[in-house]
Specification:
about 20% strand, 4-stranded antiparallel sheet, Aminopeptidase, single chain, binds coenzyme A, 5-stranded antiparallel sheet
Amino acid sequence: MTLPRELRTERLCLRWWVEDDRAPFARLNADARVVEFLPGPLSRQESDARAQRIEAHFLEQGFGLWAVEIPGVTRFAGFIGLSIPRFEVPFTPCVEIGWRLDADYWNRGYATEGARAALAFGFESLHLEAIVSYTVPANARSRRVMEKIGMTHAPRDDFDHPSLPEGHPLRRHVFYRIDRAAFIGLRGSR
Ligand SMILES: CC(C)(COP(=O)(O)OP(=O)(O)OC[C@H]1O[C@@H](n2cnc3c(N)ncnc32)[C@H](O)[C@@H]1OP(=O)(O)O)[C@@H](O)C(=O)NCCC(=O)NCCS
């Protein structure tokens, strides 16, 4: 199956990464507002390593955390997309939907718009049965995006993130999911 290298929405182009994305990605990963609910700011080296892992995922899977371009506004605003988590918990293996945007572009509906396209891609092109997402309980912005795209919180599956040590303040995660039937139902009701 040949998968497209970009997805278009009304305002966004979700595309594979290019070398020029590295510098703005590093700026975003060093911004305290962006990493408030992540384990901490990243150095340039750590940010580049993260970008490399994202690119490797595209090469291995044909899809991933697409770079977000906002034509006429910015060449790189962050990422939105689908990825396969590498850690093991009761709900893995699975496909996760995730997002991280430059704070200059928050609250304009971009994450929701891009995430809807990523969900459609997951169900219609990858034929997935379900897509999951998770974050720390306090990340209200991210939870709001999950809710706006039709995901539901499944408290019974809330979990402790295995990459963080016991007692870490960001270890507890809330778990959201949407399955194919719910996605098709949402489409029909629009
Ligand atoms: C999460 C993130 C991608 C959202 O991007 P965005 O483009 O601003 O999202 P949207 O504009 O589509 O939606 C944001 C929603 O959160 C709401 N919101 C904003 N600040 C909020 C707050 N402090 N508390 C509750 N809701 C808030 C907005 O009002 C909006 O909801 P509405 O449309 O019902 O009004 C962005 O905030 C981000 O990159 N955060 C840092 C990285 C991160 O936490 N990623 C997720 C890790 S799991």
